[in-house]
Design goal:
The chain is mainly alpha-helical. The protein has 3 domains: 125 residues, MgtE N-terminal fold (Alpha Horseshoe), CATH 1.25.60; 102 residues, CBS-domain, CATH 3.10.580.10; 172 residues, Tetracycline Repressor, domain 2 (Orthogonal Bundle). The chain has 24 helices and 6 strands. A 3-stranded mixed sheet has the order 1-2-3. The longest helix has 29 residues.
């Protein structure tokens, strides 16, 4: 509501070409708040407002616009001014933005970019999607190990305006091979020592990632070592970029979203929910719903095989939903726990024996609990004809729940071993398998005990 209160004033300033007022509007508040007040403006109006901000403020304001508005601004007709705006963006953000811009617009903008920015864009765009090279930035501090602490600080002051972060200073040789790293804190602490060089201060044992490493592995590395940024090198250890913690957060959010989609048996969306066309959304949901429908059809075939038994022992039908839901829910719990543990690195493939044993014990404990509840329901509520018949329910539940925990835990591990995403073995798939198994176990136990 508050965001719309300033729209008439902003539009009035635009109509009057109030340059002083627009400049003050761009700088009076935090850029995030200013961008919020501009939400109601069209892309053309927002672009005009941006022209009254200094380059650094303009870039920051632009970064707080939603992605659709950013794309619309870049696709506006003023190519020269748009090119100036695009050139000021961080290299990784520039690549992310232009990949959603119409191809002919990108082709018209590229010749207008400064040579260095154009070269950066083409190099970063060449890396495969979801790799370290695709999310890294080339704006980082690199210094020679021969510099003294004071000389390094002076050089850093010259570079600082063009850098995304100065938490770490990367020490390279004449051919940009990574030699070590020095933190800004170490540099400031050594200011009083005139003879100390960066070579003396640097840590040679640097945690690095390769430009072609999977972005999820990079995120795990940054989280494991608690880094603010990680250097990206090529096969010859040439420093080609860095990945900062904010980029890692974006990667983690993207990977978590993909896993959540797969756990729900939905093909991961390439765009946001609202930006995904309905036909595409229907396809990504429908293809797996079709697979799950086939699984449910197999459950129906399994029931059909025991049609004569159910005609003779009709009271068993009452407990079919109880049996298959207990097994399916237990399997889904196990699958979710294991998928999450694999994603966070809490467990590895080598832990599979411990995982299976833990889930077996869990299956026995949970099966005993649910079996007791099932027995009480069958016997005390007279849902089963007699005491012996009532025992079918706890025995079945024990077996089905144990099967659920074992399948729910081993299938994601198997997928991980096959280098497939464990989240593909999602809850609906596990539940579908347990449904079929539950029917078979239930009817076989009933035949045996009766």
């Amino acid at each position: 509501m508050i965001n719309t209160l300033y729209l008439p004033e902003i539009r009035e300033m635009l109509a009057l070409n109030d340059e002083a007022g627009l400049r003050e509007f761009c700088t009076a508040l935090h850029p995030a708040r200013t961008a919020e007040f501009m939400e109601g403006l069209s892309a053309e109006e927002a672009f005009v407002v941006l022209q009254h901000a200094e380059p650094l403020v303009r870039e920051e304001l632009f970064s707080y616009f939603d992605h659709d508005k950013q794309v619309a601004i870049v696709e506006s007709d003023d190519r020269l001014r748009v090119a100036e705006l695009v050139a000021d963006l961080p290299p990784d953000d520039r690549v992310d933005l232009l990949q959603d811009v119409k191809a002919h617009v990108v082709n018209e903008l590229l010749p207008l970019l400064p040579m260095e920015e154009r070269r950066d864009y083409l190099r970063l765009r060449a890396y495969p999607e979801d790799t370290a090279g695709a999310v890294m930035t080339t704006e980082f501090a690199k210094l020679s190990e021969a510099l003294s602490a004071r000389e390094a600080l002076e050089e850093l002051g010259k570079q600082a305006g063009q850098l995304e972060t100065i938490y770490y200073l990367y020490i390279v040789d004449d051919t940009d091979h990574l030699r070590g790293v020095v933190s800004t804190r170490q540099l400031v602490s050594a200011m009083g020592k005139s003879t100390t060089t960066l070579g003396d201060l640097m840590e040679a044992d640097v945690v690095t990632v390769n430009a072609v490493d999977d972005q999820e592995d990079v995120a795990k590395t940054v989280a494991h070592y608690d880094l603010l940024a990680v250097p990206v090198v090529d096969a010859e250890r040439v420093l080609v970029g860095i990945i900062t913690h904010d980029d890692v957060l974006d990667v983690l959010r993207e990977e978590a979203t993909e896993d959540a989609h797969r756990i729900a048996a939905v093909n991961p969306l390439e765009e946001s929910y609202m930006r995904t066309p309905l036909l595409t959304l229907s396809w990504k949901r429908g293809i797996w719903l079709g697979v799950l429908f086939f699984g449910a059809l197999l459950t129906a075939f399994a029931l059909q095989q025991y049609e004569n038994d159910l005609d003779e022992i009709t009271w068993l039908v009452v407990f079919i939903p109880l049996v298959i839901s207990s097994g399916g829910n237990t399997g889904s719990q196990s699958a979710t726990l294991i998928i999450t543990a694999l994603a966070t690195g809490d467990i590895k493939l080598g832990d599979w024996i411990r995982v299976v044993l833990r889930e077996l014990i869990q299956g026995i404990v949970l099966g005993a609990l649910l079996g007791l509840l099932g027995f009480l329901a069958a016997f005390l509520l007279h849902l089963a004809p007699d005491f012996q018949a009532s025992l079918i329910i706890p025995v079945t539940l024990m077996l089905v729940v144990v099967c659920g925990t074992l399948l729910g835990s081993t299938l994601p591990l198997l997928f991980h071993r096959l280098r497939l995403d464990p989240a593909m073995m999602s809850n609906p798939f596990v539940a579908g398998i347990i449904d079929i198994l539950g029917i078979i176990v239930f009817m076989q136990v009933a035949r045996w005990m009766l």
